[in-house]
Amino acid sequence: MNKTRLQQLGQLLNTSVVTKVLTEAEWVRQGGKKHPEAGQILQTPDKCVVVTRVQGSELECIDIDGTLSPLEAELLGWAVKQNSVRPSSGASDLERQARRLGEWIQQSVTAGEWRAEVPDRMELRNRLFDGMVPFLLLCEQLEDKEPSYGELEKTIRTFLADDTLLIPLREHEWLVLSSDGILTEADSDGDEMLGHEETKELLASLTEGLHELITSEWGGECHIAVGEPIVPSENAVRIVATLRETIFLGRKFHVGMQIHLPWLVHLERLLSGIPETVRSRFVEEMMGRPDLFTDSETVATLDAFFSMDCNVSETAKKLFIHRNTLLYRLDKIKHEAGLDVRSFNDAVLVRILLLLYKVTKRK
């Protein structure tokens, strides 16, 4: 609310009116309802606080000295709410509804309410069908101007489906929900019933395609995480938190990777929770040669070996080298590090050491 309107409101009410910012937690502590919206009012014996705008976990409010009559409070709340939902130039009803849902999801994630269900007051709730595929899109560095909501929605729908929903969350971050029908359409075998592993392979392929589309249109650095089909009315908050963590772990442990799959970062999630001092000490104690992972060829060989489930033949194909060349490299690692990655226990240790080294070397 601008200064002129504040002065006009103060004159109408014959009292002092000022603006202030509260966190959602402060609002709740003072007696306000959870998940506040513009137009909600909190009355205390000596003042009245009105929410004028919700920005993530922060609330822009006006603080009014004294109390309001029930009619004054109702009229003021109505006026503020009407002003807050006034669409920006060119904004569609769908965009306004999507932004409103995105604000609610962001507030719930910030509050740690991962099990919160989308409330009935959200207009898009009736478009959240069971079995939707969630993508989290994070584009922090776009070469060209960031696309508008309409441009990005149109581009994504050309790749996924017409009933796909684009929900803005934070700056440069969007939740994309698409019908699970995209999985059967992407399945070249045409199987009606997809297995769990087949589903994950198709999701990875779709994510790569979406990433290629976004970067070809706008360039820059773009990260995308995908989850298995969910019931979004019940799990929207949880999946956003999960996919955010997936992108965070992927960027932390696998620099340069831009496609992030939650089922591939279980070990990274565990290691991330270990204190930094413990991680560093473990690396120092376990590595026979501190400079082992400074050799790019060694790191590339191990990355490929682990990505191919420690299969020698498949790793050699992936690296475009002869099988004997790969065996020579693995023997060299065994000689220099004292760990044989063809042995299960040693492979686990080397996998952990490599992940930790990738983090500690950047400290």
Automatic annotation (TrEMBL):
Q: Give the matching Gene3D superfamilies.
A: PucR C-terminal helix-turn-helix domain
Any Pfam family: HTH_30
Q: Which domain of life is it from?
A: Bacteria
Domain PucR C-terminal helix-turn-helix residues, every copy: 299-355
Q: Which InterPro entries match?
A: CdaR-like_regulators, Homeodomain-like_sf, PucR_C-HTH_dom, PucR_C-HTH_sf
Q: What PANTHER family does the annotation carry?
A: CARBOHYDRATE DIACID REGULATOR
Name of this chain's protein: PucR family transcriptional regulator
Say which species the protein is native to.
Cohnella terricola
